[in-house]
């Protein structure tokens, strides 16, 4: 009886019949080894295993060092990067747009500077007005009625609302214009 | 201690009192058959020596993970066979030896090997075996020389018993043809 691929059932037990040339060859192992090789081999293997163990210990130490110091560092760097992407990049874009917008207007350099500060939220309008009023140099610099008129005109153009944070009263442009008109000759603006 | 079974040797190793000693006993038990198995694949002694040492090193590194789902003996042979085949693969890549020339390379190694002590017929047989495809060559050696059971070979090579029987049958016929025609 024959199996798949014409393999006889008793093939392995009757190899002499199916492969007479092959079975006629001496089956002893022709490969030899250097003298006392098998006596020395266990020692060579043991050395290799020990060398591997000490290498693995050093490697382990490095691995244990790595997460301890580098994972928090990596987390910190990631947080900073995320904050930069989420907050600073859009902020920088807004500032750039505001500056470009202002640069295209017809305002003077001083007006542009003040508007840029306001647009970029660097300074509050009320604070600006407060500084303007409290500063001696500012009052001294307003020398003439024409200068005063220019300031009034500027305030008329801008929609400035000043909050008196102490008395919780809102002072509008009209109040300021009225005040300036009333006291044109009064240099002591600090009393405002 | 030399006559301990695989199971007893593994228990001794797992106890951890003297892992190196119990491992040494395993090496002594299997070094000769593993050497011969690898030598038939790689032919040269020096290459075989390297691969035998790497095989036992792998065993040392992974013995703790060995869960006895298979016999230790078949697990060890599987590592040895893979190491030998990987060695040949690396050699091919390293020295740009095309697949077709591997047999030629191994045949040259056989001719120059000072540790080959076979007669002319044995050399002829080895050269005939080298003409077989790599996997078929391994099947032939394991069955013909090492007289391994098909079931164990199946576990080692991850091939069905039926496929192994067919492969062996084809290999024997090819060798017989080569020996007859030479």
Total count of strands of chain A: 2
Helical content of chain B (DSSP H or I, runs of 4+): over 70%
* Count of strand segments of chain B: 0
Number of helices of chain A: 8
End-to-end gap of chain A: 123 Å
Gross geometry of chain B: globular
Broad structural category of chain A = mainly alpha
Quaternary assembly: heterodimer
Please state how the strands of the largest beta sheet of chain A are arranged side by side.
Answer: 1-2
Low-confidence sequence ranges of chain B? none
DSSP helix fraction of chain A? 55-70%
**SSE order of chain B:** HHHHHHHHH
As residue ranges, the low-confidence spans of chain A are: none
Task: Look at the structure and give the mean pLDDT of chain A.
Answer: 72
Mean pLDDT of chain B: 90
Roughly what fraction of the amino acids of chain B lie in strands? under 5%
Computed over alpha carbons, the radius of gyration of chain B is 18 Å
Describe the structure.
The complex is a heterodimer of chains A (192) and B (182). Chain A contains 8 helices and 2 strands. In chain A, a hairpin with a 4-residue loop joins β1 and β2 (169-171). Chain A has helices at 15-18, 20-23, 37-103, 109-119, 125-134, 136-141, 145-157, 173-182, and strands at residues 162-164, 169-171. The mean pLDDT of chain A is 72. In chain A, α3 crosses α4 (109-119) and α7 packs antiparallel against α8. Chain A has 192 residues and is mainly α. Chain A has a two-stranded antiparallel sheet. With 182 residues, chain B is mainly α. Helices cover 76% and strands 0% of the residues of chain B. Chain B is built from 9 helices and no strands. Chain B is globular, with a radius of gyration of 18 Å. The N and C termini of chain B lie far apart (49 Å). The mean pLDDT of chain B is 90. The interface between A and B is large, with 33 and 46 residues.
